[in-house]
């Protein structure tokens, strides 16, 4: 059977051509469990049963960009904007550390109010007080800024390329360039960051071939961490009339990436949990090994709305910690100890 041959090849070589990836992504529903089984086995063999938690602090909801799908886009007059002060961010990180987090993710819109020097102060401030790894997710900056931030102690960087279809990229990201985004990702890798990237599933006009190319681009960029989420239509954006992406197709992308990049870190994303109450659990069963709970106060959580219906906005950080620990245990897995650096071989 063609499907099993492709799965065996993926299992043995971790390499597939675009046609094979398309075949996996379009497997009929009766057989898709085979894809998930292989992905789960590879996950177990390469990264084990531990699920690592990352405490996410969304520290600013301002953004200078205007991405068509995103609630933080600058043209969204309904968005509620806030910026946390340096002291507030450091304090949040400390409280996340105190409830057990060993990675802090600092995320914001592309907000140049924070200069590289300010962010460096925040990173140093956190590292002085807490024994944590720090991930930045603050968008496109200059190489010298990435360098300052690395030297200040940042360990990892997350920035999805969102779609590898350049024409679609240009349509959805006015005044931005696909080339610059890819160039930033390569610079980050060169500077020694653990690199996280990924894409959205179910964007308008996106095809299965586009998704197969997205998967191959993640591999080509040699990412250490791979974030894949379904597009969720936001009523305050130009894409308000387009349907949401599919949970199933997102899970297939996760499974294929686990087969092709066996030792990477792959989160069960919040967007998946928003679209399907069992979304994160399902992702853990087909390749995912990370969860990124939001550790901000409820006041800020409700103001950081990339898409509607985001889960957990009424839960405080310790509640979410307990909840995700239960999710992990319910899947027969355990909470990872330590920083949970990527095991991805260079
Ligand atoms: N639906 C799903 N994910 C979204 N993101 C932004 N807007 C949406 C949306 N409407 C994702 C982007 C970005 C990440 C932080 O959130 O992929 O990289
Ligand atoms: Fe926040 Fe479940 S992860 S309540």
Helix content: 40-55%
The helix tally amounts to: 14
**Poorly predicted parts:** none
Beta-strand content estimate: 5-15%
Identify every distinct bound molecule in the structure, by name, code or SMILES. 5'-deoxyadenosine, FE2/S2 (inorganic) cluster
Report the end-to-end length measured between terminal Cα atoms.
34 Å
What is the count of β-strands? 9
From the spread of the alpha carbons, the general shape counts as globular
The class by helix and strand makeup works out as: alpha/beta
Average residue pLDDT: 97
Largest sheet: 6 strands, parallel
Secondary-structure element order, N to C: HHHEEHEHEHEHHEHEHHHEHHE
Spatial order of the strands forming the largest sheet: 2-3-4-5-6-7
Q: Evaluate the radius of gyration.
A: 19 Å
Short précis:
The protein is of the alpha/beta class. It has 14 helices and nine strands.
Tags for this entry?
346 residues, alpha/beta, six-stranded parallel beta sheet, three-stranded parallel beta sheet, 14 helices, 12% strand, globular, binds 5'-deoxyadenosine, binds FE2/S2 (inorganic) cluster
Describe the structure.
With 346 residues, the protein is of the alpha/beta class. The protein contains 14 helices and nine strands. It has a six-stranded parallel β-sheet. Strands 8-1-9 form a three-stranded parallel β-sheet, covered by helices on one side. α1 (2-13) runs parallel beside α3. The chain starts with a helix and ends in an 11-residue tail after the last strand. The mean pLDDT is 97. Bound molecules: 5'-deoxyadenosine (5AD) and FE2/S2 (inorganic) cluster.
């Amino acid at each position: 059977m063609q499907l099993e041959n492709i799965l065996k090849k993926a299992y043995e070589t971790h390499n597939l051509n675009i046609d094979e990836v398309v075949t996996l992504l379009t497997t009929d529903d009766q057989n898709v469990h085979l894809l998930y089984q292989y992905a789960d086995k590879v996950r177990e063999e390469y990264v084990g049963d531990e699920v690592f938690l990352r405490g996410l602090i969304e520290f600013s909801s301002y953004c200078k960009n205007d991405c068509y799908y995103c609630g933080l886009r600058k043209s969204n007059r309904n968005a509620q904007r806030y910026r946390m002060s340096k002291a507030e961010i450091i304090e949040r990180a400390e409280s996340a550390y105190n409830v057990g987090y060993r990675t802090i993710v600092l995320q914001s819109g592309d907000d140049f109010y924070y200069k590289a020097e300010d962010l460096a102060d925040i990173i140093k401030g956190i590292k002085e007080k807490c024994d944590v790894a720090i991930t930045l997710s603050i968008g496109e900056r200059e190489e010298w800024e990435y360098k300052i931030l690395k030297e200040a102690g940042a360990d990892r960087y997350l920035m999805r390329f969102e779609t590898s279809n350049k024409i679609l990229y240009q349509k959805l990201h006015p005044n931005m360039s696909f080339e610059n985004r890819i160039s930033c990702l390569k610079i980050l890798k060169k500077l020694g960051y653990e690199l996280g990237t990924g894409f959205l599933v179910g964007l308008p006009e996106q095809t299965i071939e586009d998704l197969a190319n997205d998967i191959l681009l993640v591999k080509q960029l040699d990412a250490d961490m791979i974030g894949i989420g379904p597009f969720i239509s936001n009523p305050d954006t130009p894409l308000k009339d387009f349907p949401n992406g599919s949970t199933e197709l997102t899970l297939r992308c996760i499974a294929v990436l686990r087969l092709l990049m066996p030792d990477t870190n792959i989160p069960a994303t919040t967007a998946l949990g928003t679209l399907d109450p069992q979304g994160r659990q399902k992702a853990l069963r087909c390749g995912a090994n990370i969860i990124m709970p939001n550790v901000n106060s409820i006041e800020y959580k409700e103001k950081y709305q990339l898409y509607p219906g985001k889960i957990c906005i009424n839960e405080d950080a310790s509640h979410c910690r307990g909840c995700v620990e239960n999710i992990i245990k319910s899947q027969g897995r355990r909470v990872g100890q330590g920083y949970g650096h990527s095991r991805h071989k260079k």
